[in-house]
Amino acid sequence: MHTRQEQLEAFSRLLDVMDRLRAECPWDREQTNESLRANTIEEVHELSEALLSGKNEEIKKELGDVLLHIVFYSKIGSESKSFDIADVCHALCDKLIYRHPHIYGTTEVNSTDEVLSNWEQLKQREQGGNKTVLSGVPSSLPTLIKAYRIQDKARGVGFDWSEREEVWDKVSEELQEVREALSGGQAEEIEAEFGDLFFALINAARLYKVNPDNALERTNAKFIRRFGYVERKARESGRELKSLTLEEMDLLWEEAKKLEQKI
Question: For 239, which of 22, 143, 191, 263 is 20 to 30 Å away at the CA?
Fold first, then answer.
């Protein structure tokens, strides 16, 4: 691994590269905060995929792409004399030090939950007490992640189940309400009840320390792999997928599952 001095030199090199690109490259010179925003969102999603893959080379590459955007925005900020990368770093360090009084101060904590509770309380003080607990959840977050963050924020101020096992009664209750709505409810009511069920399941995952977004993405990837196997086998037999019966597709699906279990 690199020494601290080598790390600083690498970061300095990145800043030099950014300066030159911004000055000499037509595309880089034209970019604004607004034009970069969509690309930044895409890069964060690509990093998320790399993290789930567990492939260090991919993670390294995608971290670099995200870091480029941080440096890029900071460069744009420096051009208007609003802020630069040093301001970004100092602001972050100041925030981390302030929100970790158990490290940099005299506060004592005995668990991760206490650390997180203190974090939320300190955030409220930073905001002068004018913002609500849930106002810190970005409205643009993907819906599943937003639900998780809402629940986590509420937990930070003590609004949570006293025992995590209690959540299963809520899940069962919401499932029953979905069934009742399906048997005679209007479309809007059915949608609302499904929403309540999803929210309860996300809550259950959170309580058992499972990130629901990661869990669902793993299942998405698993379904894609297995369905791809079914498609491939259909082509190899000279048939179109839609010509297979459901029973035939189920058999191929089970083959794909068994192959995965052997790996």
Answer: 263
Q: What's the Cα-to-Cα distance from 243 to each of 216, 228, 237, 238, rounded to whole Å? A: 29, 16, 11, 10
H helices present in 25-166, as ranges? 26-30, 33-53, 56-79, 85-98, 101-104, 112-126, 143-156
Tell me the two tokens of residue 235: 């082509």
Give the H/E segment covering residue 136: none
CB 76 within 8 Å of CB 85:
no
Q: What is the pLDDT of residue 128?
A: 57
H or E element that contains 241: none
CB 151, CB 134: distance < 8 Å: no
Vertex 197: Cα angle to 45 and 149 (nearest 5): 40
User: CA 118 to CA 156: how far, in whole Å?
Assistant: 8
Q: Which run of H or of E encompasses 243? A: none
- CA-CA distance, 126 to 147, in Å (whole number)? 24
Sequence-ordered list of residues with C-beta below 8 angstroms from that of 201, at least 6 positions apart, any chain: 171, 212
pTM: 0.67
Residue whose C-alpha is closest to residue 199's, from 162, 133, 138, 154: 154
Query: Is residue 101 packed enough to be buried (19+ CB in 10 Å), middle (13-18) or exposed (0-12)?
Result: middle
